[in-house]
């Protein structure tokens, strides 16, 4: 379980997060929602060790993450797909996926991990030697997720995976995320501007506004709260 407690983060004078508390349970999708500048990306970057917290605690499976290097956080089983897709365009699909395995596995294991990823994404398997720069937006997002999965994480942090994708491709990606949580017990924290899509696959939802949690409840309750939706989620 991911446990975020009273977390505050600032960039100089900008208070990006203030007293943020929520949990993400094993094998579930927790949606993190909120307008532009709410602090969603900052939250993910703090969990994965890219941004320093000001105060509060972040722990995963009872292990305090504060002060750990990004590399050690990955080794604990936490993987992050950044906003704008984490793929390296100058590398092939296969090379991108191999990169994800580097910190975790020996040679032998790497091969079998890659085979599992290709099984999940047959579209990528057919194009192993192609440069990532030639992929469509949806394929690129799949590669970014595949690369994150190639470290065999227990917790996956996804920052706006639907950004710029057509509705059908978004639906495909959302279905995959839901399946991963259900079938492999992966814990997912899903940051999304596409609120409807995110709520349709999430069990829990956290709404953030100007760095503070407005509500952390079941996705069903958040979706049913008309006033909250109008005020913070724009629908
Ligand atoms: N590196 C930075 N330096 C200074 N301020 C930053 C930095 N990154 C983010 N901020 C500020 O922190 C606040 C939260 O930003 P963040 O990117 O976490 O929001 P977000 O919810 O992900 O927004 P979006 O939906 O636009 O991606 C914003 O006011 C933003 O301008
Ligand atoms: Mg963001």
Structure report:
The protein has 235 residues and is of the alpha/beta class. The chain has a single domain, classed as P-loop containing nucleotide triphosphate hydrolases (Rossmann fold, 3-Layer(aba) Sandwich). 40% of the residues lie in helices and 26% in strands. The protein contains ten helices and ten strands. α3 crosses α4 and α3 runs parallel beside α6. The mean pLDDT is 94. Adenosine-5'-triphosphate binds next to β2 and α1.
Q: Within the CATH hierarchy, at the fold level, what is the topology? A: Rossmann fold
The quaternary organization reads as single chain
The share of residues in helices is 25-40%
Distance between the termini: 30 Å
What attributes characterize this protein structure?
235 residues, 6-stranded mixed sheet, binds magnesium ion, binds adenosine-5'-triphosphate, globular, 4-stranded antiparallel sheet, alpha/beta, 40% helix, Rossmann fold
What is this entry, summarized?
This protein is α/β, with parallel strands linked by helices and 235 residues long.
